[in-house]
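Dear all,

This email documents one entry for the complex benchmark we are building for the journal club exercise. For each entry we list the sequence lines for every component of the assembly. Then comes the predicted three-dimensional structure of the complex as a C-alpha cell string, followed by one or two observations. Please use this as the template for your own entries, and keep the labels exactly as they appear.
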Amino acid sequence: MSKLVSLSLVEMREGLLRGDFSALELCDAHIERIEATNAALNSFITISSESARAAAAAADKRIAEEKDRSPMLCGIPYSAKDMLVSEGIETTCGSKMLSGFISPYNCTVLERLEENGAVLLGKNNMDEFAMGSSSERSSYGAVRNPWDLDRVPGGSSGGSAVAVSSGQSPFSLGTDTGGSIRQPAAFTGAVGLKPTYGRVSRYGAVAYASSFDQIGPLGRSVEDVASVLQAIAGKDELDATSMDVPVDSYLESIERMADEGLAGLKIGVPREYFSFSVDEEIDANLKGQIAALENLGAELVDISLPHTEHALASYYVLVLAEASSNLARYDGVRFGHRAESVSSLEEMYCRTRAEGFGTEVKRRIMMGSYVLSAGYFDAYYVKAQQVRTLVISDFKAAFANDCDVILAPVSPTPAFGIGEKTASSLEMYLTDIFTVPVNLAGLPAISIPSGLTKSGLPIGVQLIGSAFQEGQILGVAKALEQSNTFANNEKTQQAF
Amino acid sequence: MSSYESVIGLEVHAQLSTDSKIFALSAAHSGAEANTLCDPVTLGLPGALPVLNRRVVDYAIKIGLALECEINRESVFERKHYFYPDLPKGYQISQYEHPICSNGRLAVRMGEELRTIGITRIHLEEDAGKSTHSETEPVSYADLNRAGVPLVEIVSEPDLRTPAEAAAYMRQLRQIVRYLDICDGNMEDGSLRCDANISLRPYGQEEFGTKVEIKNLNSFRFVERAIEHEIQRQTLMLEQGEKVIQETRLWDEQKSATKPMRSKEYAEDYRYFPDPDLPTVVVDPVWIDKARSSLPELPEQVFSRFKTMYALDDYYAERLSEEKLIARFYDQAVSEHNNPTALANWITTELYGRMNREGVNIEECPVSPQNLAMLVRLIDEGVISGKIAKSVFDEMFSTSASPDSIIEAKGLRQVSDPEVLNNVIRGVLEQNPQQVAQFREGKEKMLGFFVGQVMRETQGKANPEMVNEILRKLLSEDA
Amino acid sequence: MSLKDEEVLHVARLSAIEVSEEEIPRLKKDLNEVLEYMNSLSSVSTRGVRPTSHVHGAVNAFRDDLVRESLTLEQTESNAPDFNSNGFRVPKVL
C-alpha cells in the first residue's frame, strides 16, 4: 500500500507544492488502491481512471504555474456518491433504473471541485436512491465494512465512507437525508459532516427528499472535512433553496477554537436521547465523550428536546411523500430503464418502474403516494409537517436558552451484520433515530470517531450546531478528535 | 325557449411572453425543431432543480391588478402528480391552495349592457409539452419544447350565462393581456386557450346543476360553438329526463360536437403538496405599487377616454381601443391634427381595409400616424379633395411616403385659384351652349353635368365647392 | 387504520408500479407495519401549529429572465430509450 493513500489533505497539499510527488502520482496511487480493494469492498460503482488521470495532469500543470496560489484542493483526488450527477461519467444512484445513465451536466458541487482542480476518481456505491441505512440495497451489490467484511458500512453513503476509511479516496462527497453521511462515517471510523440545509447547493444531487437532502463531505479528519466544505459551500443560483449566508473560514474557526479552548462553551446533552435503547458500549462511549469535553473546559448541560420521540415518524412521512414525488420522473420516457414489449402506455410506465426500482424503493414510493393521497393527506402529511415545526422549536429553544452545541450518539448500535436488518423496513428505519431530528430541523451536524468496541468496531459521536454554525461544531469536533487517543486514520486503514 | 338557465365558467390559460421558461433557462418561444428548447430542468433530468423566473411573477401581478384582484402576500407552488409523456417530472408545478391572485372582476360589455364577471383566482403554472399521435402506428411522440413555458390560469366565477358572453369575456381578456404585453394572445398557436365548465339549472333555482368541462378551446368561435352545442346536448338530456354526468369532453370542430375524453380507469388523485424546491413567493406592497405604476391604460379606460375626449361614438371608441397599438396610433394622429372623427373614420375604414387585405398589422403598417394626420389636414385645408385623398392614401400605404410629397410629385394639389377656375368654367359653358340653355330653362340637374366637365378638364383637382359656387355665379350673371 | 388488498393496488396504481398477486401479502404487511408506526403521530397535540415546508423559512428565491443555451439534440437523445425527430416515442396515448 502506497504511503500516499493515508495522508491528510494538508500533507497532500504540502507534498504537491514541494514537488515530493505529482498529482498524477497521487491519483495513480489511489486508483491502484481502489483496484486492489474494490472487489472485496464494492465501494465504487464506477472508477473513472482515464478522466481522473487527465484531471491530475491538468492539476500538475496548474500547480506548476500557480504554485501556492492554486486552490487548496488542486490535484487532490476524491470520490463522490453515485447520487451526484457527473458529466460524461455514469450516474446510477445505485439503481438498475439509471444503469448506463450519463448526465449531460455536472452537479454544482462537482463543478466547484473541478474548478478547484480536485480529481474525481469515481462514483461510490450506495443504497438505491439513498433509501437505506446499510448500503446493502444497491443494484450493484452490498458495500462491505473494511473493519469487518461481514458487516455493513452503514448507509446510504456507505461507499463514500468505505472509500475514505480504506484509503481508496482522501475524501468523498455523500448526501445526508436522515443520517446518510453521519451513520456510515460512525460505522467506518470516518468523519462525516452534514451541513446546514441550504449551505451547499443540491443542484445535480439526485433528489430523494428535497427538503432534507444535503450534500456533505466525508474524510479522515475534521480538518480535511472543513477544507472540503470550504470549497463547496455557498449560494448557487441553480438551487432556490441554497441560502445566501456568508461562508465562514472553517479552518480559521478550527484554529481559533483550538487556541481558545472550549472554556465557556455549553454543550447540551438531550435527556430524551437516553430513553431509547442503545448498545451498552455506545452508551459508555458517549459518557466518555462527555467527560472528555468537560476536561477540555466545556460545560455539559442537561437539555430537553421533548418531541424527539415523534421525530422519526414525522421524518418518514415527509421523506417518503417527497420521495414518491421525486421518483415520478423515472418513467422510461426520457432516460433510464424502459420495459420492453409492452402493449400500452400504462403498462410501459408500471412495468418500467416495477423492473427498474428495487423492492425497498418501491415500498417507499407506495408509502409516499399513500400519505399524499386524498383522504390521508391531512392525517399524515400535514400532521408530520406540524410535528416538524415542533422539532424545530425544540432545537431553537435549546440553542437560545441552554447550549451552543448538542452532543448525541450517531447510531444506537455499531455496524450490524449484512442481512441482519433487511427483513423489515421498519427495523431499518429505527436505526436512524439519533440522526433524523437534525434533518427535520435543517441543522448542521458532524460525526467523528470516538472509539472502538471491544470487538474492534468503530463508534462515532455526533455534534449538532445551530443553523450555519458549521465553524463551531468543526471546532469542537477538532478539540474532541485531538483528545480521543484512538488514532483512527492508520488503524482504519490497517484494519483492512 | 328552453326552461333551463346555462351557467358557464371559464378557465383561461395564457402563456406569458417571457424569454426563458418559468423554472428553466431554456428559451420559451415556439416554432423550434422538436426538443431543441430543453435543458436539464425542462427534461426533468435527475438532480435538476427549478428556480422561479422573477418576470413571471411581475406579469401575474399585472394581470391580477388589471382584473382588480387581491394580490396575495404569500403564494405557494405545489406539485400536481400524474403520468403523461409530455409531463417530464411526473408532476406539474402549479399553484393550488395559495394562488398569487384572487377575488377579481372583469366588466364585459355586451352591447349597451355591462356584465361583471367575477374572477375566482389567477395562478401560475408551467405548461406541459406537446404530444402527437401517429396515424399509422400505435405510437405517440412527446416534444418538450413547450414544457415549462409559463402560464397564468385565470379562473372565472360561474357568472357567464350565454355562449356569446363567454366569447366576449374571452375577447376582453385577450385584449387585456395584449395591452399588458404579457401574452401575445395568439389562439391558433395555443398561447391563449380555455376550458369551459357548463351546467344547466331550471330558471329560478339557486343550486348549480352537474357540470361538464370542455377542454382546450383555442378560438373564440370554438368557445362559442362548443358551449352552444353543450347547452343543447344537456338541455336535450334534461328534457328527456336523463341525468347529466360530470365529465370532461373535447370539442370536435369537424363533427361540430363535443365528445367524451377517455375516462380514466381510476379516479384522479393529484396528490398536491407544496414543492420543497421552491420557497414561498412573498409579494409586498412595494412590489405591488411598482407593478401598479407600470400598468398601461387598459382597453376599458381607453374606450371611455375616446368617448369623452374625442366625442367618439361607441362604435369608433370600441374599434380604436381594441389594440393598444391602434389606440396609440390614433392618439398620435389626433395630436397631430385635431379632427378625431375624420381620423377615426380613416383608420377604421381605409387603414383597416388595406391592412386586412395585405395581412399587415399595426406595427408593420407603412402609414405613420403623422402621415395619416397630415392627409386629413390636407383635406380639411382644401389642398386636396376627399376623393383624391383616397388615391393618395393608397400610394402612402404602398410606398410609406408622406402625403405632401405624393401630392407634389403627382401634381394632385386641388385647384382653388378662382381665376384659374373662372377660366376653365367659362370655357366649359362656352362649349356647351345647349346645356346652358337647358339649365336656364329650369333644368337644375345640368349643374352636375357642368361640374363633371370641369373635373374632367382639371383631372379631378378642381375644388368642388368653389366650382359649384363659380358655376352658379356665372350662369346667373350671363342671364 | 390498516390497508386492504385493494388499497395496496390503488397506491400501486397511483405510483405507476406493477404489482403481482404474489407480491401483495408481503407488501401489505410491510406497508401496514410502517403505517402503524406513522400513526403514532396522531398522539401529538398540534393544535394551532403551523406546518413547516421550508426549514429556514426562506422566501423569494428568483432568477432573472435570461436564456441559457439548451442541450443539443444529441445530448437530449443520448439517454432516451426511444427517440426520433418527432420526439420521445412511447406506446400510443389512447
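Observations: Chain B has a mean pLDDT of 93. Residues 297-410 of chain B form one domain.
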